[in-house]
Amino acid sequence: MSFYREFARYVAPSVLAFALSGVYAITDGFFVGNALGDEALAAINVAYPLTAFLQSVGTGVGLGGAISYAIRRGGGDEEGSRRYFGVSVVLLLLSSALLTGLYLWKALPLLGLFGAEGAILDLGWEYIRCIALGALFQILATGLVPFLRNMGGTVAAMASMITGFVTNVVLDYLFVWVLPWGMTGAAAATVIGQAMTFLVCLGALVRRRARPAFPRGPEALRMMGRVLLVGLSPFGLTFSPNITLILVNKSAAVFGGAFAVMVYAPISYLSSVILLLLQGVSDGCQPLLSLSYGRGEKEKARRVRELAHLCALVLGGMCMVLLYLLRGQTALLFGASPAVAEEAARVLPIFLSGYLFLALSRVTTAYLYATNQNRRAYALIYGEPLFLAVLLLILPAALGGVLGTWWAVPLSQMATALLSLWFLRRERRPVPAAE
Q1: What angle, 0 to 180 degrees and rounded to 10, lies between the N-to-C axes of helices 3-36 and 217-294?
Q2: DSSP, residue by residue, 318-355
Q3: What pTM was estimated for this model as a whole?
Q4: Between 20 and 30 A from 392 (CA), which of 25, 66, 73, 113?
């Protein structure tokens, strides 16, 4: 198989699946915003980081295990790869139990900390309470998909995500618009959609006779630690946009009030779609990167990275142009009021200016953690929200209010992209060996 065909076989299904996941991410907002108005849309937006945290934990554990699985498989260690599969399943189940209890106990005060108050707080708690009860399915669904993809099941992984998407859309329509169950209905649709993704994934793994092995004692603890260490990068890459969401919502509430929070809601939904498309490129190329690295084919890993950068930059540029041309209509899609829609159209180009920077840094980060360069990956992933936090302390005061909040986002993305370029220039230094 040629290099380009192999690249397309991994990346194209991943991008398609994440494109649908992007629609999946905005489905609740679309139905709730049109049914219940600006406050409900803002409540979903404020609560979304808690939903995303569950999915990010699943992605982090799943990819942390799947990367180790692929590197060992690339090196011919089949038993070692099966053991990493087993410890990852155990970690996914433990995470589900822990986070279900934690959310039911502390989610309400967290929503208040994120900037929700009054009706927005009440609606956000109604939504997240149901999400917490379905945490098991969300974590297992997002955690098993990377393993399926690293086992060569790229089409099956795509099918599982499409199944969840279709289920969520149909049930959102039924639960929110027909019955109607409001915020609880939207959350239930999300949970059931993730449950369907999990079931399709599980069926595909059974058909492939993917048998996990379960090490015990010190070896199990060492391997779990390795999965968590590697998983910090994909976890952070998946969740960092939600740290942005939390910080920007809080800053918007302080400097622009509830109206600014409502303006940011449709913009953040659109941004989440673009981020998921870029994640489709980075997650799609990860199995090729890890397998090449495990086999010692560093030149092939570099070629995969360069082609992934090109694909992400083209995709990001196309999205910038499309959303700029449609900026007057985008917020109306979510049922925003005319005043909110008009202000969102005026502000959206500021956020669009950061998409090419995102394309560069997202693929670079995936390349670094897929090839065992975890410290550099950590610096990119956790550096972006750190840059943002610093800029949010400076720019709103310097620019006279919420305008500084908006500009802090693309400027933090630019800083992260420059850091990623610096890391790539230092690539001539030896890459750490696989364990």
Answers
A1: 110
A2: HHHHHHHHTTTTTGGGGT--HHHHHHHHHHHHHHHTTH
A3: 0.78
A4: 25
